[in-house]
Known about the structure:
Blueprint: E1 7-10, H1 13-21, H2 34-37, E2 42-50, E3 53-64, E4 71-76, H3 88-101, E5 104-110, E6 114-118, H4 120-126, E7 142-143, H5 145-156, E8 160-161, E9 175-180, H6 191-195, H7 200-211, E10 215-219, H8 224-238, H9 245-258, E11 263-270, E12 273-283, E13 286-294, H10 303-317, E14 322-327, H11 339-347, E15 350-355, E16 359-362, H12 365-379
Helix pairs in contact: 4-11, 7-10
Amino acid sequence: xxxxxxxxxxxxxxxxxAFLETAQDVSFLQRPEWARVKGGWRGESLGFFDQDxxxxxxxxxxxxxxxxxxxxxxxxxxxxxxxxxxxxENVIRPLAAYLKNRGSFQLKMGPGRxxxxxxxxxxxxxxxxxxxxxxxxxxxxxxxxQALALNDxxxxxGFTKEDVGLDFGAGQPExxxxxxxxxxxxxxxxxxxxxxxxxxTTRNETRKALKSTLExxxxxxxxxxxxxxxYNHTADRQEFTGRPLSYxxxxxxVLNEAVPGSCTLYIASNEGVDLAASIVIRSxxxxxxxxxxxxxxxxxxxxPKAIMNRxxxxxxxxxxxxxDQGGVSATLDKEHHLSGLTKFKTNTGCDIVQTNGEWxxxxxxxxxWAFEKYMNWRKK
Length: 380
């Protein structure tokens, strides 16, 4: 081990949480309590130490592979460490060695750094225009040399990048939609400045919703059944298979026990009828609009727009840098089945951000090869 290498060892959940309290840009997927929400995975808190000083953490989610009893080790949106202060190889080599020694056959990692950003207005304007087929055809809002260098370092370390094409992979999406809540200098925006990035139609619908008789409340865990009724209705309408009520109740309880106020349920109702509901998760200076649901009734009141406005207000008040609205495709082709999602999200002011994506490192090559073959067979 070179003197620059860090060493990796397990830490307690309490040590892990205490470290995260001092950090910025921490994803909720890297908090120790997330392992208790995520079914089917075993969580492990690891610390990166420079001699005796804890300088970084990783929540590793382990999934046992069938028959062989060894695990796929997954670090979603992490690790939480300053890659400017510590070279990528000095972070990842000891992590890979630790996991390999303890029976992991593969390390899957999505560092989650922001590589490139395209402005909401530019994406919206050129979606479906001739000569624009992918985001890379557009002018950038900004890009990060550091995040690009991290990708190069992962390649040099033997990682392979999961290529999901223009669709989503199974893990964290590479391209995400985010409403910026701070300017380029890190100064917090106000709601009017955020709304300036909306499409004119969305801005008008939001103002109409705010003038209506809608009431927006913050629910507690006992109100999650109200969310779930709307969520099931949305699942039926959009033909997807929803999660059970118990999942959302566990998420709300576990996250708020660990960090009070980190998981918020919003419900918009009009004259006693629930019309829309959303779940927002906050972690350090970041926020995620994780789940939304709406009724088919009273659509002209635009209840989801009123909730969005409240989520933006509360996220600004909490000092958040952005409100993440989940994955999108890199396509600008109007015929692509995911283009409607890009249109909807950029209408609500979302810039499109390319993150590092997810990378795989075989720790035991024959087992990693066999596992990949098995997973490809299962997809058929």
